[in-house]
UniProtKB/TrEMBL annotation:
InterPro entries: RNase_H2_suA, RNase_HII/HIII, RNase_HII/HIII_dom, RNase_HII_hlx-loop-hlx_cap_dom, RNaseH-like_sf, RNaseH_sf. It comes from the Eukaryota. Keywords: Endonuclease, Hydrolase, Metal-binding, Nuclease. This is Ribonuclease. It comes from Caulochytrium protostelioides. A divalent metal cation binds at residues 4-5, 111. Endonuclease that specifically degrades the RNA of RNA-DNA hybrids. It holds the Pfam family RNase_HII.
Length: 231
């Protein structure tokens, strides 16, 4: 079983965690099927591989979508839950979900979040029944089963963003929906993304629901240009 995510860094949109799982004897065949780190594949290649999963009976997957609101709520709560902890908790929940379905998981490979040794020890303690747990940097490039999870996460995140239905009502929601195609990559360093944030900033209510309020890029804009609130 391999685990990876898509959308950890952007200020816009969800973060998607996915796991892929195959019989141990079949894991080497993933590379020959074309599975590789999603970042080195084109969008059409990722979509082709993702849609091919339905016709691959020996490969399964599961995923979790963390919305911008849930990410920010954790990071801004009184008892703060940072992004690394949210990532760890989501990964643990995905592995547990596969185990609860009755699969005998013998090996787990994960792209690290934080120090790999600490994370690996945490997972080994939580899942003593799993024979081998490997947490590594660039695991999506090293282990094909993590590459498969990476593709599931990336294609899913792209689809969620493309079909994003703003919670804002009326003209405001329509304006946000119409502008999603020009919001850039969503990363804080992208000038298009920064310009999009400026154009969709409300002086009282802040940003639309596609924005992670807890990111410093959004917080700085609110501090500078929005109405101050005294609690």
């Amino acid at each position: 079983l391999g685990v990876d995510e898509a959308g950890r860094g952007p200020v816009l949109g969800p973060m998607v965690y996915a796991c892929a799982f195959v019989p141990v004897a079949a894991k080497r065949g993933l590379r020959t099927c074309g599975f590789d780190d999603s970042k080195v594949l084109t969008e059409s290649q990722r979509r082709r591989l993702f849609h091919g999963l339905a016709g691959t009976p020996w490969l399964g997957y599961a995923l979790t979508v963390l919305t911008p609101q849930s990410i920010s709520a954790g990071m801004l709560a009184r008892a703060k839950v940072n992004l690394n902890t949210q990532a760890h908790d989501t990964t643990i929940a995905l592995i547990a979900r596969v185990l609860d379905r009755g699969y005998h998981v013998r090996q787990v490979y994960i792209d690290t979040v934080g120090p790999p040794e600490t994370y690996q020890a945490k997972l080994a303690k939580r899942f003593p029944q799993i024979d081998r747990i490997v947490v590594a940097k660039k695991a999506d490039a090293l282990y094909p089963v993590v590459s498969a999870a990476s593709i599931v996460a990336k294609v899913t995140r792209d689809a969620v963003l493309a079909g994003w239905a703003p919670r804002e009502h009326g003209a405001a929601g329509a304006r946000v929906a119409a502008s999603l195609a020009v919001m850039g990559s969503g990363y804080p360093g992208d000038p298009k993304t920064v310009a999009w944030l400026q154009a969709h900033r409300h002086p009282v209510f802040g940003f639309p629901d596609v924005v992670r309020f807890s990111w410093s890029t959004a917080a700085v804009q609110m501090d500078k240009a929005c109405v101050a609130v005294v609690w």
